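Recall that a protein's primary structure is simply its ordered list of amino acids. Everything else, from secondary elements to tertiary packing, is in principle encoded there. The following example makes that idea concrete.
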Amino acid sequence: MPSTLKPPETIPLKKAQIRRHIRKRRKQLSSQQQQNAAEQLAKHLLQTVQQHQCKRVALFLSMDGEIGTQPAIEQLWQAGVEVYVPLIHPFNAQQLIFIRYQQHTPLLRSKLGMLEPSPDCSQVCPLAQLDIIFTPLVAFDLSGNRLGMGGGFYDRTLEYHYKQQRPTPAIIGIAHDCQKVDDVPLETWDIPLREIITPSSHYWIGSVYLS
């Protein structure tokens, strides 16, 4: 069943509690567990990309205990798929743009602590030309509700895309299995996911495929 909207004053507190709990949980994963999860995830992402014959996909560069994406990125490179990573828009700090990421792309540390490529306009891919955006998340539930870090960058960036009901890019969340929770509290601007992939499962909202 979809999550029930809670009184507004309780939602930020509940979200903060879930963030603390899940971030602690995923940071407790051992290096070997993280590596195994990243390798298993890479297989699922490559399979998904090949099934949909994707040419351009967006992934994030992992930090803070997030599931590793580098094995997936390297497999996508080998398959000839263009990979793009998010960058805070240089002229609008509320939005993301997506920059081509290649093997020799130099990375810089942002103010938020994220590794990012330099803002090269010639390497930007317009949102509508991406086939899939694989989004990070802190927690998710089986109604497709996603809890992010709280900055709202993906929600704001994808808001117009959702309002227009555009078929591409597909938006798919990726996470560790331990990031699934019973219920993510909703706010009016939160954008739900139709698909979520973890090392063990591929969730289509309303059903799940166990790998």
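DSSP finds four helices and twelve strands in the chain. The radius of gyration is 16 Å.
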